[in-house]
Design brief:
There is one protein chain. The chain contains seven helices and two strands; from the N terminus they run H-H-H-H-H-H-E-E-H. It has a two-stranded antiparallel ribbon. Helix 2 crosses helix 3 and helix 6 packs antiparallel against helix 7. The two termini are about 30 Å apart.
Length: about 170
């Protein structure tokens, strides 16, 4: 039984409404409602007043045994919050990866198109049987290729950073 269930049970056993309990603890009825729904938890001074009102020990109120101290109960609560946040974080990570993949694909497509156009525009030396790319004529394409390649490296670096950061969590 967790804190919220114990609070509901104790309030029912003592035949108290949420408003009556709130008045005893100097809090609002909405605060008691949030505690009982599990949306929030009392502060340490509030927990002391709850325990005093029901004449029980804080460890009993939190469901702690000798093997499980109060601090660990708080850690368990934080773990539950993290578990609720992980699906959201996972969706966010997947969305970021999808955006990075789309940007990478667009940059790669642009790079390939630029290279193909530059080669098509290049002159062919039939005596040497090689493609001759005249630098002055194709300078804008070469600059574009360099920028697209750098952009792709930046996207790859961001992706690697996201992977490393995700493993640390």
């Amino acid at each position: 039984m967790d804190f919220r269930e114990r609070l509901i049970k104790l309030r029912d056993e003592n035949r108290l409404s949420q408003q009556e309990l709130a008045d005893m603890l100097d809090v609002t009825r909405q605060t008691v409602s949030r505690w009982e729904s599990g949306r929030s938890y009392p502060s340490i001074p509030q927990m002391a007043r709850i325990c005093s009102a029901f004449a029980i020990d804080a460890n009993e109120m939190l469901g702690c045994t000798a093997e499980k101290p109060v601090d660990e109960a708080q850690t368990t609560h934080n773990g539950a919050e993290e578990a609720q946040q992980k699906p959201h974080a996972k969706r966010k990570f997947i969305a970021c990866v999808a955006v990075l993949a789309a940007l990478f694909a667009a940059a790669l497509g642009g790079l390939i198109a630029t290279i193909v156009y530059a080669v098509k525009d290049a002159g062919y030396d039939s005596s040497a049987t090689v493609w001759v790319v005249s630098i002055p004529q194709n300078t804008p394409m070469i600059v574009l290729c360099v920028f697209l390649a750098l952009f792709m490296v930046l996207i790859a670096a961001i992706f690697i950073y996201m992977i490393i950061r995700g493993k640390r969590r």
